[in-house]
Specification:
This protein is mainly α. About 65% of the residues lie in helices and about 0% in strands.
């Protein structure tokens, strides 16, 4: 259990963190077309602005604009929300996409690239992905089809987790032709359709079928989802870079399946066994509660990859779902709705506690700051800016610890 533990990373893990280098391959269709916009946007950021603040600001906007949509339709049953909320959500997602794309550029520009930035970026993405899935599900009224909404949201969680699962195996984060940027633009487009035509557009009957138009995005999304799954598992099963084809930590390539199963399987069983139909009546709340658990185990997977260490299977965040399970086991002694709220609050507090500790440990070890740029980095960035030279891609932050490491290497 991690909740309450004083130290999360061992000396060996911290030593491996020092040698970690970010590796990424992208074959995205839209990224090359978006690069000019992102390159221009980052030049408008002041050199004193910390990259992690950019990431956090983008996530905050995405969360707020999504929650506005959810506020007007909390059960996602298609009762309708004002059209302006969908436009706001589209703008919020575009804002998040842009800031998420330039945080790394800002880090290289200011000479503050570090493993903490990589972890912080992926951690924010793990939260954003569920807000995107919940937002579009709420707009289209998928709550009227609980199992479809369950499938959409938990598939999004599983796909994001599998992307980092294959990174844990191969050592490289790989993006396909249709990946994050393309999927975000699809969601933005759906929001814009809702903003123009209203939520009623998703309740129109498809001629000759028993389905409404809200099923169209679900069916279309099945194709890239299948491609993602095939691509990820091909890498997972054949791309291990450790000894005898194992993961970067030398563990089984299938070991990360256990934490994911410990999130998805209980979520499905609890919703099926519920006497009060806790998921059908509160789909958004239910997904948010389990997404806190999923986000934390995903972040732990990222940390395991960066520190080349074995992934822990059980986690304190799983106590929340265990509460729901035990309550059902004892014939629903407490109302499931109230237990669900306790589960959500527990997961949120546990997740934030983990982030506070992991960021503090990495900052202390690497002699860097999370939300501000150190004086040495700021001076170096200012000098590079005046000289017309930017920090090279993937260069480490200009911190005292890294400076000492370079001196020793010389």
């Amino acid at each position: 259990m991690l909740f309450g533990r004083d130290r999360l990373l061992s000396p060996a893990q911290l030593a491996n963190l020092d040698s970690h280098k970010y590796s990424c391959q992208s074959n995205s269709i839209l990224d090359p077309y978006m690069q000019p916009w992102w390159n221009w946007l980052v030049t408008k950021c002041p050199l004193w602005l910390a990259p992690n603040l950019i990431t956090l600001a983008g996530l905050a906007v995405n969360i707020v604009t999504t929650l506005i949509v959810v506020y007007h339709n909390p059960d996602a049953k298609g009762k309708g929300a004002p059209q302006w909320t969908f436009l706001l959500a589209a703008v919020g997602l575009f804002f998040y996409q842009s800031l998420d794309a330039i945080d790394g550029k800002q880090a290289r520009r200011t000479g503050t690239s570090s493993p903490l930035g990589e972890l912080f970026d992926h951690g924010c993405d793990s939260v954003s992905v569920i807000f995107v899935a919940v937002g579009v599900s709420t707009m289209t009224g998928l709550g009227a089809h609980p199992m479809v909404m369950f499938m959409v949201c938990f598939t999004a969680i599983a796909l994001f987790y599998s992307a980092h699962w294959q990174t844990f195996v191969s050592g490289t984060l790989k993006f396909g032709r249709i990946d994050v940027t393309e999927e975000q633009w699809c969601v933005i487009s759906l929001y814009l359709v809702g903003a123009v035509f209203g939520s009623e557009i998703w309740n129109l009957q498809i001629p000759g079928t028993d389905y409404t138009t809200k099923m169209v995005p679900v069916l279309i999304g099945f194709i890239p989802t299948a491609v993602h799954c095939v691509g990820s598992f091909r890498v997972i099963l054949t791309g291990g870079v450790g000894k005898n084809g194992s993961s970067v930590a030398g563990t089984s390539v299938l070991s990360p399946s256990i934490p994911l199963a410990l999130v998805v399987v209980p979520a499905f069983v609890i919703c099926q066994k519920s006497i009060e139909d806790v998921f059908g009546n509160n789909p958004v709340l239910y997904i948010f509660a389990f997404s806190m658990v999923a986000s934390k185990v995903t972040c732990k997977l990222v940390v395991a990859h960066m520190t080349k260490s074995e992934l822990e299977y059980f986690d304190s965040s799983m106590i929340g779902p265990a509460m729901l399970f035990l309550n059902q086991y004892f014939s629903t002694y407490f109302r499931e709705y109230y237990v669900l709220w306790v589960c959500l609050i527990w997961g949120l507090v546990d997740f934030l506690d983990y982030w506070r500790k992991i960021c503090t440990e990495i900052c202390d070890h690497m002699d860097i700051y999370c939300f501000r740029i150190g004086s040495q980095s700021a001076t170096a960035a200012s000098s590079s800016s005046h000289a017309g030279v930017s920090a090279p891609a993937g260069s480490p932050g200009v911190s005292a610890r890294v400076t000492r490491a370079r001196s020793k290497a010389s």
